[in-house]
Amino acid sequence: MTTKKIAVLAGDGIGPEIVAQALRVVDALELDVTTEEALVGGAAYDAYGHPLPPETLALAKVADAVLFGAVGDWKYDKLERRLRPEQAILGLRKELGLFANLRPAICYPELTAASSLKPELVAGLDILIIRELTGDIYFGQPRGRRAAPDGAFAGADEAFDTMRYTRPEIERIAHVAFRAARGRNKRLTSVDKANVLETFQFWKDVVTEVHAEYPDVTLDHLYVDNAAMQLVRAPKSFDVIVTGNMFGDILSDEAAMLTGSIGMLPSASLDSSGKGLYEPSHGSAPDIAGRDVANPLATILSLAMLLRYSLDHADAANRVEAAVREVLASGHRTADIAGSGERAIGTRTMGDAVVAALGRTT
Ligand code: NAI
Ligand code: MG
């Protein structure tokens, strides 16, 4: 077996602090895996004048998987758009062909108090939202500003974007979703707005066609507005959700809040070959950067997804997830998940606890 390589792009803000804890977990697992770090985001802009320099992209391309921290800081807000740190993540998605964004929303029994919903609604919640990443209104052409060519406000300034999906884009995300559902509880909900948008009537038609190849999976369809309601009314009624880029952006953030803390939520972005980029769902949290208070668990759980989906180390992934459950069960809390009266520990101490818990499992 050849040694697998992880490209490590820690980025800005709390990125380096939380990624450092995930790297300690990699070491503790003693796998046949190498890691190599490179600059990305604002850190890369400061060093090279670009948020995604060619060296960093080249490393991401040769590696078997990318472990990503977060990018962004207010101090870059004045830069032109193509130089902003956030462009690095968009560039990586594009260059690596990452089209499927997997965001689990899991509510650990110890943390139900942190949820914005009643504990009985979220205790034991374990859903997976799969968001298409490359199409939809975020990338459709044409887009721009002009004088409105017609209508009641003809001649006035207007801005417009284009929602579009091609059949292959819908088919490949549908296959990812049906396979993921097959590996779980065999239930998939496709979220659309087929009643209003032609793009999403097409989405619904294509997902229904792909379903023929997965007769063991139950498929249902929901309009996005209803899905948003059901997610807060009865979130446990879902298992795997698949949807387009914009609806997925919104619903995955909504689902994140059900679980209490964004500091707990991992994510994966996959290509069609098994390669992927793994990152916490949160951003660079400049408000708490450098203070050893950030929760490293979302990043450590992203590492677990990396081991499972890209490195074929499902056993190691299970060990990492078990270690995280154990540290929560034994009362370890960073500030973001500490209840009132609970003592909060720092980023590094949380890393210590996970590494120690790993040492107790094999
Ligand atoms: P954010 O997710 O960075 O922070 C939102 C709130 O959650 C803050 O109060 C923060 O302190 C807290 N938080 C986030 N992660 C935490 C953790 N691990 N532990 C404890 N608390 C945590 O979102 P915000 O403030 O909107 O964005 C900050 C920067 O991050 C911006 O420059 C934004 O563009 C960037 N960003 C980057 C992303 C990425 O790298 N993929 C994703 C989202 C935002
Ligand atoms: Mg978002």
From TrEMBL:
Q: Which PROSITE patterns match?
A: IDH_IMDH
Q: Is Metal-binding found in the keyword set? A: yes
Could you mention a single GO BP entry for this protein?
L-leucine biosynthetic process
Catalysed reaction(s) here are: (2R,3S)-3-isopropylmalate + NAD(+) = 4-methyl-2-oxopentanoate + CO2 + NADH
Which GO molecular-function terms appear in the entry?
3-isopropylmalate dehydrogenase activity; magnesium ion binding; NAD binding
Q: Where does Mg(2+) bind?
A: D225, D249, D253
Write out the pathway annotation from the protein's UniProt entry: Amino-acid biosynthesis; L-leucine biosynthesis; L-leucine from 3-methyl-2-oxobutanoate: step 3/4
What's the domain of life for this entry? Bacteria
EC no. given is 1.1.1.85
The cellular location(s) given in this protein's UniProt record come to: Cytoplasm
Q: Which InterPro entries does this one have? A: IsoCit/isopropylmalate_DH_CS, IsoPropMal-DH-like_dom, Isopropylmalate_DH
Output the Pfam families linked to this UniProt entry.
Iso_dh
Query: Can you cite an annotated GO cellular component?
Result: cytosol
* Residues binding substrate: R93, R103, R131, D225
Site positions (Important for catalysis) are Y138, K193
Asked if the Swiss-Prot or TrEMBL record annotates the protein with the keyword ATP-binding, the reply is no
Q: Name the keywords, alphabetized.
A: Amino-acid biosynthesis, Branched-chain amino acid biosynthesis, Cytoplasm, Leucine biosynthesis, Magnesium, Manganese, Metal-binding, NAD, Oxidoreductase
Q: Can you tell me which residues bind NAD(+)?
A: G283, S284, A285, P286, D287, I288, A289, G290, R291, D292, V293, A294, N295
Q: So which cofactors does this thing need? A: Mn(2+); Mg(2+)
The family this protein is said to belong to: Belongs to the isocitrate and isopropylmalate dehydrogenases family. LeuB type 1 subfamily.
Q: How does it assemble?
A: Homodimer.
Report the function annotation for this chain.
Catalyzes the oxidation of 3-carboxy-2-hydroxy-4-methylpentanoate (3-isopropylmalate) to 3-carboxy-4-methyl-2-oxopentanoate. The product decarboxylates to 4-methyl-2 oxopentanoate.
User: Which protein, by its recorded name, is this?
Assistant: 3-isopropylmalate dehydrogenase
Q: Which organism is it from?
A: Piscinibacter koreensis
